[in-house]
């Protein structure tokens, strides 16, 4: 799960220690196992014990990592959000949106099976209220992280209204793009191109409407 406090800390950079990587790998495998079972049996018919067995861990270990059955899927949802937050923090004030998007596309790595599981999960969020809540929670937690990164870029001690709205626009664009891609199977575009287009749309803001173009006036 994206932790705002951890994201703000300068801390250690580079590759995480082996134990942390193993924990992250275990959490991701639990998430993938949960999606497999949710697709095969349905969310209501899948228990936390089923997920633990599918992932090859004990129920006790599962409960150490996740507070609820539905929250087991969170690791599949936070990868792209964390990736965006990292690049927002390194986005210089003299760079434009094109440079930000180029940075985001340059080093994003995600295996095909993880992406498939994530897209299957996003599709499930349309009909499963519990999973939808987890999806929205992931983005709710991301928004203040985005705002703080943008405030730092603007040289502000904390996010002002402009930065807060910009962070909300980026967050909404990412969510809408992934949901759109998942619901349309993405053809003929890649998910990266859909996300890029959505962020361009957000950056453009609202179109200007002249008085002569308004209808019903």
Write structural notes for this entry.
With 217 residues, this protein is mainly α. The chain has a domain at 73-204: Tetracycline Repressor, domain 2 (Orthogonal Bundle). The protein is 68% helix and 0% strand. The chain contains 10 helices and no strands. Helix 2 (18-41) packs across helix 7 (112-124) and helix 9 (161-184) packs antiparallel against helix 10. The longest helix is centred in the middle third of the chain and has 25 residues, at 129-153. The radius of gyration is 19 Å and the shape is globular. The model is unreliable at 1-13 (pLDDT under 50). GO terms for molecular function: DNA-binding transcription factor activity; transcription cis-regulatory region binding. Residues 24-84 form the HTH tetR-type domain. Keywords: DNA-binding, Transcription, Transcription regulation. Residues 1-10 have a biased composition (Polar residues). InterPro entries: Homeodomain-like_sf, HTH-type_TetR-like_transc_reg, HTH_TetR, MftR_C.
Give the helix level as a range of percent. 55-70%
The biggest sheet, with number of strands, parallel, antiparallel or mixed sense and barrel status, is: none
Low-confidence stretches: 1-13
Distance between the termini: 49 Å
Portion of residues in beta strands equals under 5%
- What is the name of the CATH topology of the domain at 73-204? Tetracycline Repressor, domain 2
**What is the number of beta strands?**
0
Q: What is the string of helix and strand elements? A: HHHHHHHHHH
Mean pLDDT value: 85
Which CATH first-tier class of the domain at 73-204 would you pick? Answer: Mainly Alpha
Based on Cα principal axes, name the global outline.
globular
CATH homologous superfamily descriptor of the domain at 73-204? Tetracycline Repressor, domain 2
What is the count of helical runs? 10
Keywords: DNA-binding, Transcription, Transcription regulation
InterPro entries: Homeodomain-like_sf, HTH-type_TetR-like_transc_reg, HTH_TetR, MftR_C
Protein name: Transcriptional regulator, TetR family
Pfam families: TetR_C_14 (PF17754), TetR_N (PF00440)
């Amino acid at each position: 799960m994206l932790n705002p406090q951890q994201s703000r800390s300068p801390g250690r950079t580079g590759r995480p220690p082996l134990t942390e990587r193993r924990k992250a790998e275990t959490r991701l495998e639990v998430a993938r196992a949960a999606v497999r079972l949710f697709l095969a049996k349905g969310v209501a018919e899948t228990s936390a014990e089923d997920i633990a067995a599918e992932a090859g861990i004990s129920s006790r270990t599962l409960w150490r990592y996740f507070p609820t059955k539905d929250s087991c899927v969170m690791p599949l949802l936070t990868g792209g959000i964390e990736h965006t937050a990292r690049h927002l923090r390194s986005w210089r004030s003299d760079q434009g949106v094109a440079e930000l998007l180029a940075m985001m596309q340059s080093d994003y790595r995600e295996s095909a099976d993880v992406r498939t599981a994530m897209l299957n999960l996003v599709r499930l969020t349309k009909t499963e209220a519990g999973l939808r809540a987890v999806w929205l929670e992931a983005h709710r937690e991301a928004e203040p992280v985005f705002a703080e990164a943008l405030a730092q870029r603007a040289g502000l001690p904390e996010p002002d209204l402009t930065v807060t709205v910009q962070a909300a626009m980026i967050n909404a664009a990412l969510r809408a793009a992934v949901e759109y891609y998942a619901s349309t199977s993405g053809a003929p575009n890649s998910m990266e191109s859909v996300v890029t287009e959505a962020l361009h749309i957000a950056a453009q803001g609202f179109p200007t409407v002249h008085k002569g173009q308004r209808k019903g006036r």
